[in-house]
Amino acid sequence: MCSQSTMVIFNNTTSSSPNFLLTAFPGLEIAHVWISIPVCCLYIIALLGNSMILFVIIVERSLHKPMYYFLSMLSTVDLCLTISTLPTVLGVLWFHAREISLKACLIQMFFVHGFSFLESSVLVAMAFDRFMAICNPLKYAIVFTDMIILVIGLVICLRQVIFIFPMVLALKNVSFHSGKELSHPFCYHPDMIKYTYSNPWISNFLGMFLQLYLTGTDLLFILFSYILILRTVLSIVAPKKQQKALSTCVCHICAVTVFYVPMISLSFTHRLLSSTPRVVCSILANVYLLLPPVLNPIIYSLKTKTIRRAMLRLLQFKGSGGPSVRGRRGRWD
Q1: Domains of the chain, CATH where assigned
Q2: Which pTM does this prediction carry?
């Protein structure tokens, strides 16, 4: 049973409204306090790292370029995704606050899936940025104007709302079994849909179709972009120029890998491998949530000299005036 403090936190749980029980690491409840230490460290790294990336891009005028605008979008999405799960994850680990109402669960599910699909779309925009920078460098500045980047950002956000919001509204009218235990410390559509009174197959199929349509088309576009990039790079005669062109894509390839691999693994584990141990699902869920927000700022700050130098200078001079940091158009220095 949940404690009285849990009922205060999720006070919209009533007898007429079904509720769920969140789970962090099944079978390791006694060690939750100790497990919370590395989890909190990862959350802190994600929050501070992405906040620093955003702050540096806003403050440094030399970073007001298309590639850094897209990076700021990625950091913003990672920040929002981290914040959307932080209360329930730490609530379960610290206070054993497991109970959550259906309404609160649907709201969290909307943000978790919405920001996840949003990150996928941002990665597509970044792939298009790399494609233009390498394959059509003369048109790069013409295509990626400030207005075009703003339009891309608005379209990306609108796309998520159009597809995710109707799904959440449909689930609001679905009847769920009350008191069922979820596999994660946050609300995840394939995990919730198992506990409906109606046949979950239709909702599960629609959820999988939506994920395949959004992330599947995004991933195909990214792969197609890199096929064209690779073809262009191979046509370059000088080996040093080939290496330099490919090196500008390393950060984005890493970001794509750390995002899509855990997401696809978790989704297929839930939908197709029902016999998977709950501990494995829990670990995959935490990797899916924390790996991209933690690693993305580390990858970009270590690999991108411009970002790294700007960070060091801001830390050294505490944001005071100094010589501007130089950057190159269309390149991750």
Answers
A1: 17-306 (1.20.1070.10)
A2: 0.86
Half-sphere exposure in the Cβ direction for 123 (13 Å, CA): 30
Identify the pLDDT of residue 290: 92
pLDDT at position 8 is 38
C-beta separation of 225 from 242 below 8 A: no
Residue 62 contacts residue 306 (beta carbons within 8 Å): yes
Provide the token pair at 303: 């690999």
- β-bridge partners, 44: none
User: Residue 129 and residue 217: Cα distance in Å, rounded?
Assistant: 17
Given a contact cutoff of 8 angstroms between Cβ atoms, the answer to whether 103 and 12 are in contact is yes
On whether the CB atoms of residues 232 and 135 are closer than 8 A, the answer is yes
Reading the block at residue 137, the tokens are: 């460098």
Radius of gyration of the chain (CA): 22
> Residue 129 is which amino acid?
D
Instruction: Look at residue 101 and give its three-state secondary structure.
Output: strand
Q: Taking Cα atoms as reference points, which of 52, 28, 10, 120 lies closest to residue 314?
A: 52
